[in-house]
Amino acid sequence: MRLARALIVLLVVAACDHPTPPEPGEYGPQGPFSNAIPRQLTFNTGQNLTPAWLPDGSGIIYQFERVDQVDGDRCLGILPAEGGRRAEICNNTIAGADSTDAYGDPAVSGAGRLFFSRASDAWRLHNLAPALMDVAVAPLATPGLVQSVRTLPYTVGGRTHYGIAQTRWLGDSAVLYMAQNVFYVRVVGYDTVRAGIELALMDLKSAPGTVTTVPGTDSVTSVAVGAGDTIYYTVAGDSRVLRRTLATGDTATVWDFGAPAIARDVQVRGSKLLAVVGGVVTYAHDPSLGPVQSDKGGVVHAVDLLLAADTTLAPAGRLYRHIALSPDGRRIVAEGYTFSVVVHIAPQPWDTIVSPHANLWLVDTP
Question: In 10 A of CB 250, how many CB atoms?
Fold first, then answer.
């Protein structure tokens, strides 16, 4: 009997001795999936576009497409520099649940100010173009404290700017960017076609931000900020990278990749210059839209301006767009597009088929 009672006691104790249930929390991946370089940073089945580095090099901010919601929002994501868990900046308001909201073209100043574009429309209407567009600033640490600084489109100097791209901070109270035409075209579904108009500066000391344009920068396709008030830029259909002093307007060719190559997406750190060159890119005058450069990606070139040496980064089965050079100049993050070559007999010997979907890749520079 004593043995039977002891067994009963042990069984009761064992039944009550269960592990504590796990506490609520985040149990997703925390670090990069791989330490290899080149390294794929995003695995979203939607688009991942326009990456930019945080000023201290600790992370990357970019636009990503929400594929888990019916309204098709595009939000801003922030990744650690080596890859890992994404933080998100989205329109999570009650009103936002009934609209398609797109945040894009992000840039963060040295003091932690976030500049970005916003577009919105009621998603059930399936309109071709957004109903509301503006640019806004917010503290990166508290992005909910957002302030609209200029509605889009706006007109300055007789030209209407419908969009912005390639935003670069000048200090903490002004930005330099590429002002664009934006066309919404019905094809199979719809497409958005962007064409650079000119470079512009926006003073953010007050709202609305005062805009001035940079003369002689027609059909601009990319811009980078150098030391002092020096900027670098490319123009549509051109193989050159141009350098300009903002105060004086003095402009010179700093590097020419040689015709018929087309250069774009320039980045500069010290004597290191990077650009996307060639690839699947065309420049033509569309009878309806005007001058348009169609770009599906190209090859990254790294130029040592002191040695006058041009090195091509191995494509590794991808074409790149919108490269962003890290603050220390050691790495780039870029949109990566897979491609394949299809061989024909005639009349064209081959064709390059490029995926319309982009993920972000981390790549070492020479």
Answer: 10
